[in-house]
Amino acid sequence: MARTGTKPRPTPGSRRSSGGTARSQWRAVGRRKRGASPIATSAAWLFRPETLGVLLILLAVMAVVWVVPIGSVSDVRDTVVEALGLQVFSLALAMIAAGWLIWRRRVAAVGQHPRLIAGLLLLFSFGAGALGLLRPEWTIASTSLSDVTAGGDLGRLLTGDIAGVVVWLASGLALVTTAWPSAVGGALSRMPGAAATVWGWRIPHRLFRGVAAVADFAFPTRPPVDEGPIQAPPAWLATEAGPVEYVEVAPALEETAPPGPPRQVELPMGWASPEGEEERPLQAVSSAWTLPPMETLAAAPPVEETARPDNAMRASLIVETLASFGVDANVVQINEGPVVTQFGVEPGWDIKYRQVPERDKDGRPSLEKDGKPKVRTEEVSRTRVRINQITSLQNDLALALAAPSIRIEAPVPGKPVVGIEVPNTSASVVTLRSVIETPAFQRLAARSKLALALGKSVAGEPVVADLTKMPHLLIAGATGSGKSVCINTIISCILMHAKPEEVRFVMIDPKRVELSSFAMIPHLAFSSIVVDVEKVVGTLGAVLHEMESRYKRFAALAVRNIDAYNRHPRVTERMPYWVVIIDELADLMMAAPFEVERQICRLAQLARATGIHLIVATQRPSVDVVTGLIKANFPTRIAFAMSSQVDSRTILDMAGAERLLGRGDMLYMPTDAAKPKRLQGVYVSDQEIDRVVAFWAEERVRGAHSTPVFDHLLDKAHAAIEEEADSDPMFERAKALAQEHSRVSTSLLQRRLRIGYPRAARLIDMLEDAGIIAGSESGSSREVLLRDEDERF
Q1: Which domains can be identified in the chain, with CATH numbers?
Q2: In which element (H, E) is residue 387 found?
């Protein structure tokens, strides 16, 4: 018979009243079990997780010793009290907690908090030992605690002899280490510092460092997701990226992969599988990512004709100035760049002459009309003008050209000229888009995902480089010279042509503000930017662990590098490149010089084959920051304007950086060049960075790659959208799809309805409000309570 009744169904998207879901579940269970035998119905009800959880809670309550005083139960009670003492109440609380977890179907969530479980067990053991020192005149049931300690036989065992005391104190130390691993590791690493400095006592120093490393490996700390009050999202999130759908915020702080196409998550050190277990393969990576359009970047501004310098006049000034000092030279080429113009000066000839008297046929001197002997000029020798004759006139040329400073490159590599670089009267901006659109960059980007747009040379030619060939980059420059802009340009350039499954970033920013604009990109390997100096050593240790893990995978497939690994036929998921960016090396070298130098050098020496590359920047290039070991492992370097010639020699092993103009003017030293190249670095504005980050943030939400922090920001900014979405035209299709299955999940709605994660999650909530599916469980799918057959009868 058909269903009748006029009771309206809950409106999709409306707020559910308290208890409504539970009542709909029990009604659905009653409808589903109608017609079954009473025994089967009772057994099904008894073995439901909710029933088992409630029974366990009741058992824990009844287990309180003075409630159960009869029969054989009393003997069991007395045995437990004698063994545990007052800790029986802790056991009862544990049973209540376990019952609550079973009732709420959250048992699987326990495995996500191993530190919490280990800490509770250590607290139970340490508490039993502490109670074992007490013998109060208390009686629990028929057991006197004066005969057995307050901690029972367990407490007496832990405090009765030397071995027990050692175990008890070790559990206390392990408890403190589990609760505060970072503080314990830092304290252990700093304790022997004075002794190591004054007495040179290295054995305890290394011992404590080893203990700290073991503690950090056993109990790794993840940077807290919420280190302060959550601020409102930036203005571009609503204006540039467009409207964003409402996303429900997960209650847990740990980042959990939402249902649907997951994104790849790399595990840092200490989160990998235990030794001896087979390491799980990389998680499947969604292929739904799209790259930002070129319109995200700003086009190059047009160059005004009035701003162009008069190069012909400056070339004649150079020739005249050199001639006034007796140097013969000609300007044979003029290369106008964005900031400086290079005049190619070809050295002339240094010719020596002598006066020779003329003679007649008889050999007598010929005379002029005034009686003076006739003479003629005869060339004696011809030699090229020495280059140092031109370079020594550098300041005189700057004075003649009215330039703040000039740089002479003698000779220009590959050309038979001396390059005199004169600043232009007005500099033109080199935009990232103008370099990316060049054929040179497009050819390189087709071969490598780590193609970098560095800038334009003094001749106006684009300069691009491959980070995999460098393989690591050292950047130095004084404050305001363009060092941070260069790092932002490198990151933005990679974001324009690399997806998260292809390139991952590890960003270390001790200054906290330089890399904060990239906090929302999905390319971050550890889901956050490391800003605390105390966490840098652990982060670099995690990168080292990833490097060693990759080498083990290479050895298993008998390949040598990441390219061969990704091409191997047995590889199902490509291994992404990692780019480790350290914005200020000087701060790290002051905080932990020994560990940071050792880890950076080890990564620079070994990580190239595994696809892990370093980009290290500093504004204080002294020898105690850029040590000899670091310089030896960073053959590719970029030097911006320096304050002294000493700093230039520290980075480039030669002078020249102290004469740069600043604001992106740099010297680039590649691995295959004997001399550095002068470039004008690419400039990327804050608005361009915001648009690129907004694009990837929108991709993250649309492709179901969101994280709890980002979801919370979106929830706070767009809460009104969820209030207005009282109905959804896709609800009826979602309802029909749910009634065709016994269980339904957000990912199922995404695949079958071809919608994004936020909308699918909202439809799941609407189905729950309507009583069609059950409430949230530990798994990712929900049980369907109202099937098609239920509506037909």
Answers
A1: 21-179 (no CATH), 236-272+706-792 (1.10.10.10), 310-345+393-425 (3.30.980.40), 349-384 (no CATH), 429-690 (3.40.50.300)
A2: helix 387-391
Using CA atoms, how far apart are residues 257 and 277, in angstroms rounded to an integer? 23
Reading the block at residue 757, the tokens are: 């994660």
pLDDT digits (tens, 9 = 90+) for 328-355: 999 999 988 888 999 999 998 888 888 8
Strands 375-384 and 349-357, sheet pairing? antiparallel
Among 620, 623, 648, 653, residue whose Cα is nearest residue 635: 653
In the block, tokens 């189905």 appear at 767
With contact defined as beta carbons under 8 Å apart, do 263 and 256 qualify? Answer: no
304-312: list long-range contacts, CB under 8 Å, 24+ apart: 307/425, 307/426, 307/428, 308/336, 309/336, 309/341, 309/424, 309/425, 311/336, 311/341, 311/343
What does the pLDDT read at residue 701?
74
Whether this model's pTM surpasses 0.85: no
CA distance 639 to 483: 9
Query: In this structure, are residues 730 and 276 in contact, taking their beta carbons and an 8 Å threshold?
Result: no
How wide is the angle at C-alpha 316 spanned by C-alphas 311 and 321, nearest 5°? 125
Residues facing 260 on adjacent strands: none
Residue 153 and residue 83 in contact, taking contact as beta carbons nearer than 8 Å: yes
**Encoded amino acid at 322, one letter:** L
Strand 462-466 vs strand 677-681: parallel, antiparallel, or unpaired? Answer: unpaired
In 51-104, the DSSP E strands lie at none
Handedness of CA 494, 499, 502, 508 (dihedral sign): positive
Q: Which two tokens stand for residue 112?
A: 């996500």
Best-predicted range by mean pLDDT among 104-118, 123-137, 670-684, 730-744?
Answer: 670-684
SS3 content of the chain, % helix, strand, coil (to 5): 45, 15, 40
d(CA 706, CA 682): 31
Q: Report phi then psi at 333, rounded to 5.
A: -155, 150
CA atoms of 390 and 289, how far apart (whole Å): 56
Closest CA to 339 of 452, 275, 265, 425: 425
Distance between CA atoms of residues 694 and 241, nearest Å: 5
Cα separations in angstroms, 759 against 246, 682, 704, 733: 8, 40, 10, 13
The answer to whether the CB of 49 falls within 8 A of the CB of 105 is: yes
Enter the DSSP assignment of 137. Answer: S
Task: Output the pLDDT for position 379.
Answer: 82
* Distance separating alpha carbons of residues 509 and 467, to the nearest angstrom: 20
- Segment 514-529, tens digit of pLDDT: 898 898 899 998 888 9
d(CA 292, CA 427): 29
Q: Which two tokens stand for residue 162?
A: 């030397």
In angstroms, the first-to-last Cα distance of the chain is 6
Three-state secondary-structure class, residue 683: strand
Helix (H, G, I), strand (E, B) or coil at 352: strand
